[in-house]
Write a structure and sequence with these properties.
This protein is of the alpha/beta class. The chain has 16 helices and 17 strands. Strand 9, helix 7 and strand 10 form a beta-alpha-beta unit.
Length: about 425
């Protein structure tokens, strides 16, 4: 077996606020450019997307799919030789549950991973009886999370259920605004079936390790990409059988050699790391929020309590605690952001984009460049400052203005002295 990378939470063009470029051909292309071997399809609950998937992908290894050869051939012609690789799709979907529990409105997003279109059809038929699954790729259902899990276990017990971006304030199992204080509060008697949670962009393994209730729960990371270029910004490194069951077992037995660890954002770059009030451009640490009694010091409205504050509130272990079976993780910054900083230009400018694709053509997929390629090769092809940026990145020396209340944080690798 050879280690491979899997990103299993994305969205299709049928979801709100998602690029129209999120179609199978572009997903296949960008997975290769990033170095991703297994990619979630996202949105299998949407009838239009489900139909498009059935038209464009075909069975490969058990429980996985590939882009049909006639479509793949056209895309492969545009992929640099250095980045070409096999890409498999795994059927995934995120469901938004909004419901009353214990006297409060709860808003929780959950992922389901399925191994066949037959399972998908069974689930979709049932969910269509409960609510509208046609209006959005991520359907909003008035369905308790525990009941959603029960439906999956009854109709598709071989599927995998994963609470999504578990700490996001507004839509997650532990969210400060509408979540719960424990998995048991959310999933009741079915809690033993929760083996895996997705940590989200604004938290990383060390933040989750501080909760004893999560010992024995596998922590995974995915991009939640809304456009093709965002694939792989968080993902999983696996060394298991290339099949649905192989991946499921690697996650549910997540402390085995089959799961090597996660690739992460620096959590402070996530858009809900600190507390704050975006309208007033107020960013607060948890201590500052408590000092202001949860109010924005500018306008007096309640601030959005971020992930750092929330994990601290629920934690019962000290900062720096690492469980015996805590898996490795690697914190990265997208290559295009490093190039933009080096050049002092925007990530979407022509020069930065040309430099990005030049690096891929010369050195290989993005995640390989960021994690493995020798610094001398990076310097030769991208310049000394880029090589220094990657070196600092690998050493964990990012400087970050933390994100808050829906605003992504700003990461900088280089100091004025570095440029001199």
């Amino acid at each position: 077996m050879k280690p491979f990378i899997a990103d299993l939470h994305i969205h299709s063009r049928f979801s709100r606020a998602v690029s129209k470029d999120m179609v199978p051909e572009n997903l296949y292309r960008w997975a290769q450019l990033k170095g991703i071997s297994v990619l979630g399809t996202g949105d299998f609950t949407h009838p239009g997307w489900c139909l498009e998937l059935q038209e464009k992908i075909e069975p490969a290894e058990p429980g996985l799919y590939r882009l049909k050869p006639e479509l793949a051939k056209k895309v492969d012609a545009e992929i640099p030789e250095s980045c070409r690789g096999e890409v498999r799709f795994l059927l995934t979907s995120e469901i938004s549950s909004i419901y009353k529990r214990y006297g409060r409105t709860r808003k929780v997003h959950n992922m389901i991973y399925a191994s066949s279109f037959t399972e998908v059809s069974n689930l979709n038929d049932k969910l269509a009886q409960i609510g509208n699954i046609r209006s959005d790729g991520r359907p909003i259902l008035g369905l308790d999370s525990e009941e959603l899990l029960r439906i999956m276990l009854e109709l598709s017990p071989q599927s995998l259920f994963v609470p999504a971006h578990a700490w996001t304030p507004h839509f997650s199992v532990f969210g400060a605004n509408s979540g719960f204080d424990s998995l048991e509060e959310c999933f009741g008697e079915l809690t033993p079936h929760i083996k895996v949670i997705e940590t989200g962009l604004s938290s990383d393994p060390p933040m989750n390790w501080r909760l004893s209730q999560l010992e024995g729960i596998t922590l995974i990371s995915n991009s939640d990409a809304h456009s093709p270029s965002k694939l792989g910004r968080e993902c999983n490194v696996l060394n298991c059988d290339l099949s649905f069951e192989g991946i499921k077992q690697a996650f549910t037995n997540g402390f085995s050699p089959q799961f090597l660890g996660t690739i992460e954002f620096f959590p402070a770059e996530g858009k809900y790391y600190y507390d704050g009030h975006r309208n007033c451009q107020i960013r607060l640490t948890p201590e500052e929020t408590r000092a202001h009694q949860g109010m924005c010091p500018e306008c007096g409205k309640m601030v959005t309590v971020g992930v750092l504050h929330r994990t601290e509130a629920l934690s019962d272990q000290p900062i720096g605690y690492r469980p015996e079976k805590g898996l490795p993780y690697w914190s990265l910054v997208p290559l295009v952001e490093l190039l933009a900083e080096v050049r002092g230009a925007g990530v979407n400018t022509k020069g930065v984009q040309e430099a990005y694709h030049h690096m891929l053509a010369r050195l290989g997929p993005e995640l390989f460049i960021l994690r493995e390629i020798p610094l001398a090769d990076i310097e030769e092809n991208g310049g000394r400052l880029l090589a220094l940026s990657v070196q600092l990145l690998r050493e964990g020396h990012a400087r970050i203005d933390p994100g808050y209340d829906g605003e992504f944080g700003r990461v900088r690798m280089l100091s004025p002295e570095d440029r001199d």
